[in-house]
Structure formats: structure tokens, C-alpha cells
Amino acid sequence: MVEWIIENKTWLFSGLAVAIPLAIIGWIISRPKNKTVQKQKSGSLSVNIQAGRNVSIGERKDHER
Known about the structure:
Layout lengths: L1 H6 L1 H22 L35
């Protein structure tokens, strides 16, 4: 294995020199800009509820306390 690395070090490390920066650039581009921002579109007479967690509408039942 060591012998193979020594024989092929030129193309092996030149490939890494390209792959690592491309991986970093891809990670930076694919990151969400702001995870806390929520967007919602609706019609003019719609009732909309938007929350970051669970939403309960109505009365609470005894077993949900």
C-alpha cells in the first residue's frame, strides 16, 4: 500500500488538492442562510397559523396536560 502511494503520489495529492476546496465551497453554498426564518404565502381571505413547534387549537383534553 505504501509503495502504491509513493508511485502515485502526484495524481493522488493533486486530486485531493482539487476535491477538498470543492467540498468546502459546496458546503458553504448549501448551508441555509438563516434557519429561524419562516415564510408563508396565502390567499386574501385565508386564516393562517405558523409556528416553529407544535400548535394546539381549541380546548385541552385532560390526557394532554
